């Protein structure tokens, strides 16, 4: 039996290790993920499909590991489709966050009261990212706005999908 065969067979039995990186003679590389590691995502297995874990796995940028472990079929296609939708929504909210934050500084000239009257939950045009923007106004620079936006939007979506029921509602609305 070849070493590669042993590595592939061992993926069913090894725990507490993500997997192996294999370098071939032509210097191409491949990753073999252990099934125990993949099962930690809660998305591998015939009946495993938890929307809250799916959203977290997508936002943590680990979904490729899960997809690669799934055989082609309905479940894999569904996860790929939902991944695209969640990623698209995430990207959209990052743009929204930056726009709303920009309005605070430019249109409202850092006037918290006027900004809140417009976008707070009880404002004229409530915005779902109002609180996230308000948390980032002090002590941050404009050069960090992309990282800040991504972190705040990720936190916002994870809070919104923190339970299975909430995650199902979120995905259903995408």
In whole angstroms, the N-to-C terminal distance is 48 Å
Mean pLDDT: 83
**Unreliable runs:** none
Total DSSP helices? 9
Report on this structure.
This protein is mainly α. The chain folds into 2 domains: 1-40, no CATH class; 47-173, no CATH class. It has 9 helices and 2 strands. The chain has a two-stranded antiparallel sheet. A hairpin with a 5-residue loop joins strand 1 and strand 2 (29-33). The longest helix has 33 residues, at 74-106. The protein is elongated. The termini are far apart.
Write the layout of secondary structure elements.
Blueprint: H1 3-10, E1 19-23, E2 29-33, H2 35-39, H3 51-59, H4 63-69, H5 74-106, H6 112-119, H7 130-135, H8 145-160, H9 164-173
Antiparallel strand pairs: 1-2
Helix pairs in contact: 3-5, 3-9, 5-8
